[in-house]
Amino acid sequence: MTLLLSHISKFISLTPEEAAYFESVLIRKKLRKRQYLIQEGDSVKYEHFVTKGCLRTYEIDEKGQEHVIQFAVEGWWTGDLHSFISGDPTTLNIDALEDCELEMVSRQALEDLYLRVPKFERYFRILIQNAFISTNRRVLSIMKMPAADRYKAFIERYPDIEQRVPNHQIASYLGITAQSLSRIRASLWNEKPEQSVRISHADPPHP
Amino acid sequence: MTLLLSHISKFISLTPEEAAYFESVLIRKKLRKRQYLIQEGDSVKYEHFVTKGCLRTYEIDEKGQEHVIQFAVEGWWTGDLHSFISGDPTTLNIDALEDCELEMVSRQALEDLYLRVPKFERYFRILIQNAFISTNRRVLSIMKMPAADRYKAFIERYPDIEQRVPNHQIASYLGITAQSLSRIRASLWNEKPEQSVRISHADPPHP
DNA sequence: CGTCTATTTGAATGTACTCAAAAGCGGTGG
DNA sequence: CCACCGCTTTTGAGTACATTCAAATAGACG
Q: Measured between CB atoms, does A146 come within 8 Å of chain B?
């Protein structure tokens, strides 16, 4: 069974026919590292499920600053729901941090799917519900935790992502600069020196 | 037609029977100012639609600091989706800022409703979708805007709420202290003195 | 009126930022 | 294979914005 179908089956159960129908509307796509999936100004036509690789969603503000909104790895959906639904041009960019493989559903296919297999309405409701809950948590964590704690929480929660994504992008996700993150990491070194040797040749910085 | 039904009819259309069935599962509730709707530790049994009044959702951190997550006025849903769905005890508090009237749906009633009138699955999917999109925007605005701009954006977007809610709670919603908000407001005074007298008669700006 | 809460203001502190530059790492082409 | 180039990470110094603590003023409500 594909990664996507097994993901779906955690929430709803499909007959073989329903599963086959669903698979028939999917579009597959490969992306090379650094390629864009979506660029600012596009009208977003698909929602994307990641079967392989890692992507990031970010926005660029007036000052040219990038703000990372989301990382997506295997088993995650990504895209821009707002543009996907409204058809408005997106303000977001999504690009591949690694070579990627995606399964995509178009708006039309999804609407048809909702009518033909209403269970999918439930599947996506639950997905979005979970996404909503976790975004809410993120708002709270930005408001109530200092940056260092947010970083610790991040590596706790997404240890896999932390390994695959450059620090300055994690910094952006956390809402701080790369420099600040670097200093935070340095201060964690002193705090718990045991954990510092995890990767390999990483010596504690030394003045 | 009730406020709730007219809200629903913006997204799905119901037959009179479906509407009647829906209304039959609703529970009405009144709340006096300062009363709790939900308290930390509760297992949340209902989602609540506000037909009258104004409520706030907040969390208290280890240091005893309150963090306002949401305000809800007429036409909004409020509650704790996470606890509502999982049954876990909530970490949130919701209380009434004014005397309130609510319509409530229980988890069981909602599940039954989904089965009997699957269109509701769509209604709530769309609701949550919108909530998700706007929370995402909030994350971005916290990350990329200074507090003063966030405040300006807030009063633009929710002029009604701004009138009804004490400043220190707006400050909390914005993720800043009441003192900081007070200084921000003072600085807006100098910046655009014309707007400061909005309520009474408009004098030509004059330093 | 008096009490309680909300708002404002001041002064000192702190956290994260900007600007700038050095060091580290990785990929590419000669 | 190595030298070079570009990008990432680190470090330093000075700055800005928001915080804390404290106290005064202003409003609301009984």
A: no
Interface residues 8-67 of A with strand C (CB < 7 Å): 65
The answer to whether B133 CB sits below 7 Å from nucleic acid chain C is no
Q: What is the pLDDT of residues A134-179, one digit of tens each?
A: 999 999 999 889 999 999 999 999 999 999 999 999 999 999 999 9
Helix/strand/coil percentages in chain A, nearest 5: 50, 20, 30
Report pLDDT digits (tens) over B5-62. Answer: 999 999 999 999 999 999 999 999 999 999 999 999 999 999 999 999 999 999 998 8
Cβ contact A140–B59 (<8 Å) = yes
> B3-144: which CATH topology?
Jelly Rolls (2.60.120)
Question: Closest residue to C19 by CA to C1' distance?
Answer: A179
Domain boundaries, chain B: 3-144, 145-192
- Chain B touched by A59 (CB under 8 Å): yes
In this complex, the nucleotide whose C1' atom is nearest to the CA atom of residue A178 is D9
pTM of the model: 0.88
> B192: pLDDT confidence band, cut at 50, 70 and 90?
low
First to last CA, chain A: 54
- Taking only the tens place, the pLDDT of each residue in B112-124 is 999 999 899 899 9
Residue B118 region by backbone torsions, left for phi larger than 0, else alpha for psi between -120 and 50, else beta: alpha
pLDDT at B82 over 70: yes
Distance from CA of B177 to the nearest CA of A (A): 11
Q: What is the pLDDT of residue A169?
A: 96
* Stretch (H or E) spanning B175: none
Strand C closer than 7 Å to the CB of B175? no
The beta strand positions in B18-177, using DSSP E, are 27-31, 36-38, 46-52, 54-60, 66-73, 77-78, 92-96, 100-106
- Measured in angstroms, what separates residue A45's CA from nucleotide C29's C1'? 40
Single out the residue of A108, A96, A110 nearest to residue A51, CA to CA: A96
A135 touches chain B (CB under 8 A): yes
Topology annotation, domain A3-141? Jelly Rolls (2.60.120)
